[in-house]
């Protein structure tokens, strides 16, 4: 899937949805609000934010929150993920999120945006090379 598989308007919508989701975060421990928006193969968009927990291990990242909402609505294929952090530089998804995203789209485009001018655009396979996934079980 080339980076241009969807329009600039769709990318703008994903960024806006990720930014809006970041406003709903529950991040009293890290003070690191994150929003994510997922584009499915059917052009549906699902957004999520990070939700922290005092036990830390039960915290969920914005990307996984969005993926789980997507699955709850019956969708199973990710085309792109946009992540927003209100920081000067973009942040890539954590390892756990990379693995969960891989389950539903190993070649998806990951776009990380921030309040600064930099944008990170990479295929998930670049961020998680030689990943273990559903294909390993057959």
Could you please describe the fold and organization of this structure?
The protein has 4 helices and 5 strands; from the N terminus they run αββαβαββα. The radius of gyration is 14 Å and the shape is globular. The longest helix is centred in the first third of the chain and has 15 residues, at 8-22. It has 138 residues and is α+β, with helices and mostly antiparallel strands. The two termini are 24 Å apart. The protein has a 5-stranded mixed sheet with strand order 2-1-3-4-5. It has one domain: Cytidine Deaminase, domain 2, CATH 3.40.140.
Mean pLDDT: 95
How much of the polypeptide forms β-strand, as a percent range? Answer: 15-25%
Question: What would CATH call the class?
Answer: Alpha Beta
Overall morphology: globular
Distance between the termini: 24 Å
- What name does the CATH topology carry? Cytidine Deaminase, domain 2
Main beta-sheet annotation: 5 strands, mixed
| Total number of distinct structural domains | 1
């Amino acid at each position: 899937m080339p980076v241009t598989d969807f329009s600039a308007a769709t990318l703008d919508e994903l960024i806006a949805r990720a930014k809006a989701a970041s406003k709903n975060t529950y991040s009293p421990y890290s003070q690191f609000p994150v929003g994510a928006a997922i584009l499915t193969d059917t052009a549906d968009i699902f957004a999520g934010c990070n939700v922290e927990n005092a036990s830390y291990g039960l915290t969920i990242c914005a990307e996984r929150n969005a993926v789980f909402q997507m699955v709850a609505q019956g969708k199973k294929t990710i085309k792109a993920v946009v992540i927003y952090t209100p920081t000067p530089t973009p942040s890539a998804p954590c390892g756990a999120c990379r693995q969960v995203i891989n389950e539903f789209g190993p070649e998806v485009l990951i776009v990380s945006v921030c309040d600064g001018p930099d944008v990170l655009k990479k295929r998930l396979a670049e961020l998680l090379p030689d990943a273990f996934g559903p294909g390993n079980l057959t």
